[in-house]
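step=encode ok
step=design start
structure_in=
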């Protein structure tokens, strides 16, 4: 048996819950550290890089779910770990105001736990989708689940943006606790009984982890796609840690306004993903290669506009530019995700979790490296340049990486393969 559309939507709720928690850690807490606590951007950059670095364990989690034959427990357990890490990270932020050393010690533990939670839950979820979704539904399933994740991110950022002003530590803790409780509850209800109801009969993979990972890496398509994911995601995440501080320092926006700006950006991501989902998956228009390239080039153009708005300062129309950036980011991301879902089932049998883990690890490494690189560049440039120019230089460098990613996609992705036939068996 394979997943029904209702079950695919249920699993999409898990992605939505993941996004809801993670956006608070990478956007809201980051902005509070840089603007309200006046810490260098590299500090939250290192913490977020830590949580992504821990996700290098994704291949291990994917292999564990392959070997165990059951993924539900890893999904729920990972979400609990993620929620616990989020609460500890919030407490660590509050402690930072009084003691930098104790606050950092608590934060390091918290972000490591966040990385473990995202890795265990997210990788197992993607592997479950890849192995139990009918071939002709995989591309649509990828679109649906990521749209739901982005919806969760945008909705959470928008709601939190309205609730957090005027900012107080207690208000922040209450908001994060509420989001965590809802996320764990939704995840448990969403996955409970799905895997058992499918009567999945696939036998566990007895291959040792190192051997299984080496076999996947030896596959040319899996290896080339891993390298593409790293480059593209480095570009994708470079602005993650500096966009809200940029909006606060250069345009004078409040914590609530910058959180809402992040929500609007993710609203743009949602629209970009929806556009590709309708055009490529529904109407069968265009190859995923073309959608990936258009998304990368459009993202580069949006970053150039955001840079040009910096010298204008307060009152500049930063919101439309950020929404445009989100739109093209979403266009690129969902096309790449569609490719990932299809390629997970190729090559040696019973390696879906390991492949998803490998690509998830590449994304995590790129996200941590990209975010840290962007934050460090901003800190160094702000020593000698006005804020608008310093941040702008980082955005332009990010734009150049997007352009490079578009050229890589042109070389490694099949131009003759339309999105509708990407998935084997369709």
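sequence_out=
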């Amino acid at each position: 048996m394979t997943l029904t559309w209702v079950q695919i939507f249920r699993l999409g709720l898990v992605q939505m819950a993941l996004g809801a928690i993670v956006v608070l850690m990478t956007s809201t807490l980051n902005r509070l550290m840089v603007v309200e606590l006046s810490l260098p951007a590299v500090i939250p950059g290192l913490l977020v890089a830590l949580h992504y670095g821990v996700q290098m364990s994704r291949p291990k989690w994917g292999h564990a779910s392959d070997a165990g034959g059951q993924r539900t427990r890893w999904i729920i357990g990972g979400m609990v770990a993620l929620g616990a890490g989020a609460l500890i990270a919030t407490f660590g932020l509050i402690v930072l105001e009084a003691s930098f050393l104790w606050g950092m010690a608590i934060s390091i533990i918290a972000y490591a736990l966040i990385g473990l939670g995202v890795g265990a839950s997210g990788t197992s979820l993607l592997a479950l989708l890849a192995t139990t979704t009918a071939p002709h539904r995989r591309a649509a399933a990828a679109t649906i689940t990521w749209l739901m994740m982005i919806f969760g991110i945008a909705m959470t950022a928008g709601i939190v943006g309205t609730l957090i002003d005027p900012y107080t530590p207690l208000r922040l803790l209450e908001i994060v606790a509420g989001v965590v409780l809802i996320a764990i509850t939704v995840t448990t209800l969403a996955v409970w009984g799905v895997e058992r109801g499918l009567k999945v009969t696939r036998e566990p993979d007895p291959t040792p982890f190192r051997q299984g990972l080496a076999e996947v890496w030896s596959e040319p398509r899996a290896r080339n796609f891993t390298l593409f994911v790293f480059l593209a995601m480095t570009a994708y995440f470079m602005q993650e840690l500096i966009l809200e501080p940029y909006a606060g320092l250069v345009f004078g926006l409040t914590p609530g306004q910058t959180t809402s700006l992040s929500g609007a950006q993710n609203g743009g991501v949602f629209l970009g993903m929806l556009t590709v989902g309708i055009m490529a998956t529904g109407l069968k228009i265009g190859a995923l290669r073309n959608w990936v390239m258009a998304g990368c080039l459009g993202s580069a153009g949006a970053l150039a506009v955001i840079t040009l708005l910096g010298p204008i300062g307060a009152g500049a129309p930063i919101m439309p530019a950020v929404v445009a950036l989100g739109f093209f980011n979403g266009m690129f991301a969902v096309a790449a995700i569609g490719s990932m879902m299809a390629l997970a089932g190729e090559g040696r049998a019973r390696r879906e979790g390991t492949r998803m883990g490998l690509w998830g690890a590449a994304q995590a490494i790129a996200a941590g490296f990209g975010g840290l690189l962007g934050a460090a560049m901003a800190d160094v440039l702000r020593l000698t340049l006005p804020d608008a120019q310093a941040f702008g230089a980082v955005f332009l460098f990010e734009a150049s990486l997007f352009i490079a990613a578009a050229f890589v996609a042109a070389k490694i992705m099949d131009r003759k393969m339309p999105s509708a036939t990407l998935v084997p068996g369709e």
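step=design ok
step=annotate ok -> The radius of gyration is 20 Å.
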